[in-house]
Amino acid sequence: MTGLDTGRIDPRIVRVITALALTVSILIMVALPAAYFIAARVSITATLQARAGSAANVMTEFVTRNPDHWVYENARITGRLVPFTEAVAPKHWRILDRTGAQVATLGTPATKPAITVSQPIYDSGVVAGAVEVSRSISDVLAWTVFLAVIGTALAGGSFLLLRTLPLRLLAESMERLERLQALERERVAQLAQASKLAQLGELATGMAHELNQPLTAITLAAQNAMKQLERGALDAPSLAARLDRILQMARRASTVIDHMRIFGRMDGEASAPITLAAAVRGARDLLAFKLERHRVRVVDTLPPDLPPVVGQAVPLEQVLVNLIANACDAYGEPPADADAPPRLIAIAAAATEGWVCLTVRDEAGGIPPDILPRIFAPFFTTKPVGQGTGLGLSISYGIINDMGGTLAAESANGSTTFVITLPAGPRDNRPAGPVSDLPAPPAGPAG
Ligand SMILES: Nc1ncnc2c1ncn2[C@@H]1O[C@H](COP(=O)(O)OP(=O)(O)O)[C@@H](O)[C@H]1O
Ligand SMILES: [Mg+2]
């Protein structure tokens, strides 16, 4: 009716605003003519009463002087009444005796509807008759109807205004909010991607090392085959063995590259059930080099019957990469003593009613209590420039939040535990193996 798109506004708000606008409009429609009618009636009645009262006083005096034959003094009574009749609206005057019979009259009878007022005439304190004056109120009714028409038009206008204006303002501000939210989402996605690329930069060193192994193996196998060929000692079975080794190593290399490529791409996968064990394995693979360099060992004890969680595999892996990398950073440079026991990151999980809880724990010294409340803030880092972006935990927090879960940190007695709580996915559809599209870790042994 108003050409207003209320589609995105909560229907309850639309209903409340419509009801309020309707109420105000009906009040305007009814109040205007009703107020006029009541005021006009009260004022006319008061005027008539005042005039009839004065006339009754004059008549009382007349009757007191002519108690016996006043009822026959028609002409004189009329004469006395004349001064009261000069009024704007025509009035009908009647003088009645005590029985109610008409003694005198002045003016034409008022057309219905009319207001009639009567005041007593006394003779020595006893009611001897009455002055009765009537006035038609058809003009008042006509005005009332006219005002009702105007009131209806005003009500219609105010209904449109009162309903459309707030709804339009609301729709506009919601649109603005949605635009801001879209911008914010885009910004967060870009930050997440930036932080992931920063992680990738660090992982690249490890990956180069990881790729070096299969490439060396491929080179060795090819060189051996060449030598045998030159010596004329290359038979078909040993050629097949060399080629098989080359293939294996090439596959291993491409698995490593695929994993990095998938981890690095802008996320856009659909939500699917993810097994936490696969995500932990993926994160460990990506961080294999860093773990080795810091002499840190990941010990994970995930129960095999853990329900899956629902979401995107890459972002979840990104969270785990960040938590494990943070723990490595917290352990710092490896001990000089090569025989020192490896430092541990313990990853455990448990399922409680409808939820899966994953903990990542290290013994690297803990987070000071004054820092703990700030670690999830964007850009908060205690690492030197170039080493920390301060985005990892804030992005991780957002990712877990988007999955409907929570990420929290506890730190005491030199150990730090990050607790990820996620809603458990449907157990029935639970796939047998890893469901993420991340390639499985390298199959064959190195070398
Ligand atoms: N396991 C941990 N042990 C000690 N401090 C940690 C740990 N994890 C995170 N922190 C602290 O939280 C800060 C923020 O971490 P994060 O958001 O990942 O950013 P960044 O790793 O780039 O510094 C780190 O700089 C560090 O001070
Ligand atoms: Mg970090």
Based on the model shown, name its key terms.
11 strands; Heat Shock Protein 90; Beta-Lactamase; 8 helices; five-stranded mixed sheet; alpha+beta; binds adenosine-5'-diphosphate; 18% strand; four-stranded antiparallel sheet; 447 residues; binds magnesium ion
Can you characterise this structure?
- By secondary structure, the chain is α+β, with helices and mostly antiparallel strands.
- Among the domains are: 11-140, 2-Layer Sandwich (Beta-Lactamase); 269-447, 2-Layer Sandwich (Heat Shock Protein 90).
- 53% of the residues lie in helices and 18% in strands.
- It is built from eight helices and eleven strands.
- It has helices spanning 11-65, 74-85, 138-230, 236-264, 276-286, 288-293, 313-331, 392-402; strands at 91-97, 102-106, 114-123, 126-136, 272-274, 296-301, 309-311, 343-352, 355-362, 406-412, 415-423.
- The strands form three sheets. A five-stranded mixed sheet has the order 6-8-9-11-10. Strands 2-1-4-3 form a four-stranded antiparallel sheet, covered by helices on one side. A two-stranded antiparallel ribbon has the order 5-7.
- A hairpin with a 2-residue loop joins strand 3 and strand 4.
- The longest helix has 93 residues, at 138-230.
- The two termini are 77 Å apart.
- The model is unreliable at 429-447 (pLDDT under 50).
- The structure holds adenosine-5'-diphosphate (ADP) and magnesium ion (MG).
- It catalyses: ATP + protein L-histidine = ADP + protein N-phospho-L-histidine.
- InterPro entries: HATPase_C_sf, HATPase_dom, His_kinase_dom, HisK_dim/P_dom, HisK_dim/P_sf, Sig_transdc_His_kin-like_C.
- Its EC number is 2.7.13.3.
- Residues 423-447 are annotated as: Disordered.
- Residues 206-426 form the Histidine kinase domain.
